[in-house]
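<instruction>
Derive structure tokens from the sequence

<record> Sequence and structure tokens follow
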Amino acid sequence: MKIDVNKFTINDYLGHEFICDCGRTHSTCLEKVAVKEYVKDDIADFLHKHSYHTIYLIEDTNTKQAFGAQLEAFLNKQGFVVDTVCLLGDVVPDEEAVFTIFANLQRRYDYILGVGSGTLNDLSKFISFKLQLDYGIVATAPSMDGFASVGAALITHDLKTTYDCHVPTAIFGDLNVLANAPLEMIKAGLGDIVGKYSCLVDWKISHIINEEYYCPTIVEMVYKSIQEVVENADGVLKRDKKAVKAITEALIETGMAMGFVGNSRPASGSEHHVSHYWEMKFLFAHRKAVFHGTKVGLATPGVIALWKQLAKEDIDFDGCKAKVASFDQKAWERCVRDHFEGAAQGVIELEQKAGKNDIEKAKQRIDHIQKHWDTIKDVIVNELQDPVKIIQILKAIDAPYRPIDVGIEDSLVKDSLILAKEVRVRYGLLQLLWDLGYLDAYSQDFVDFYKGIK
């Protein structure tokens, strides 16, 4: 069976193996997706079908109020044994949260059910994987794309780290709950989706330069999701359920795309790395967190603008090799220790394993960039959305569209372009700029792009 992007609805992707033109077979362990009004019966039916009797419900004070309390009461009436752990305050997915969830285990469970969005999903995924239990997530806000992904993003030793886990077997979302989520979380979901405009080009260009695996069918699947969200964006401020459903299902589908590929390539690129750096710096400074999707949406037009700028450069490739040959490892380590604080050692060890900054490997990549430069420019010019269009989409829903709108100062914007590539081993714009010796200069252009937006 093959994927038919133009005809498939979300559940058509479930329960099948797809032989793809990319040479791989795609499949997912996700069995059920229900995004609809009055979803509690669907949850109970799914649990009954699989003979899951004892359920561990993971929630926080906000998601308990939004849906968790009524879901727990409903499941109890249906004959399930439900224990809950309710995390307090602004939950960070760190060692303390993981310990709290483990410490509140009361018995052997058949199933883990998370109630929430990004943080609750990541924690439920990680805990269930460690307990070797299946899990499901009941979304209370359409704010991020990790629902159906294999990775759980946690903060360990102050470093944002993605752990390979497993996908949920079921994802549920009650449209009455989702449409009444904090409006900023709905906007964040849209921000996460527009970030795909950037990451898909990162992926394709890495395929060109490094021969990294790439699947055009999965890319088409993600583009379709983006289009459906953009077409319904004018309903966000009205909490229109059609718009909310489009965002929620797009977030789930992009997560499924990650599962099909086996990593986050279809949904995460340089714009996400910048977002992760901002998040870490906010954590270091004990500042109130900004929603992940909000930061991704903010980073996306700036990243695209730099791609567009790069396509206009008259590159001296021999000069690029000379610049990369002058790389100072000790100076880089000092910079990392100055900026990554408690996470610095983890960043340095990551580089020791990955060799992103290896001079000889960089020279080889420069040769590949030069060889394929015309093709790379064609991709940048023809496949990237206009950054102004992204700004217009964000403005239309009264979402933040400049980093300063959420308190990200120019100095942090500048630093993020230089240092964000260190938080992941993933080739994209940031690593390419480092290879060419343009990263420092472009960091100021990144700042100037946002300062030029009114």
In short: The beta strands are 18-19, 25-26, 32-36, 54-60, 81-87, 111-116, 135-139, 151-156, 159-164, 170-174. The mean pLDDT is 95. Residues 162 and 324 are 29 Å apart (CA to CA). The chain is about 55% helix and 10% strand.
